[in-house]
Amino acid sequence: MSQDTTTLGLFMMHRHALVNYASNIVGSRAQAEELVQEAWLRFDKASRGRLLEDATGYLYRIVRNLALDGRRRMARESQLITDENFEEAAVTCPDANPSAETVALYEDEYARVMEALAELPERTRIAFEMHRFGDAKLREIAAVLDISLPLAHRLVADAVQHCKERLGWP
């Protein structure tokens, strides 16, 4: 199977969940549809010619980042439009980019979470990603993975616990 077919198949398999995930962040299904298409273009460009290790997780991260950027942009635009003094609002509007300190603070934590997810068995990782990133219901996870509902719940709970332990959280 070619790389293009593999990445396209992965995208098509998760497209509905990705739209739901983005929709929950941005609050608009139409905007979520556009965002998922943009995510696919970026994902396809990044994965061309090589097999990505955590392709599903990477695809969800692209969607999440685009959705959060879009939500921030809409909030800033809304503030500017409703403000009578547009120039003053543009000057006082905070930068949406995180500070260097914030990036440094969470960079290590993010890396540890990604390492923790990579340590999980594939089925457990997929169940976790579907639930946490794709907003999939446990019954949807059970159907996709062809497992029982209690097992789907257990896989997600195990993944959460594993990530907490890796981060040193109680």
| Number of strand segments | 0
Summarize the amount of helix as a percent range: over 70%
Mean pLDDT: 81
Question: What is the global morphology?
Answer: globular
Sequence of secondary-structure elements: HHHHHHHH
Structure overview:
This protein is an all-alpha fold and 170 residues long. The chain folds into two domains: 1-97, no CATH class; 98-170, Arc Repressor Mutant, subunit A, CATH 1.10.10. It has helices spanning 3-26, 29-47, 55-82, 86-92, 100-119, 122-132, 138-145, 149-167. The model has no long low-confidence stretch (mean pLDDT 81).
Question: How are the elements arranged and paired?
Answer:
Blueprint: H1 3-26, H2 29-47, H3 55-82, H4 86-92, H5 100-119, H6 122-132, H7 138-145, H8 149-167
Helix pairs in contact: 1-2, 1-3, 2-3, 5-8, 6-7, 6-8, 7-8
Summary of the model, kept short:
The chain has helices spanning 3-26, 29-47, 55-82, 86-92, 100-119, 122-132, 138-145, 149-167. It is mainly α. It starts with a helix and ends with a helix.
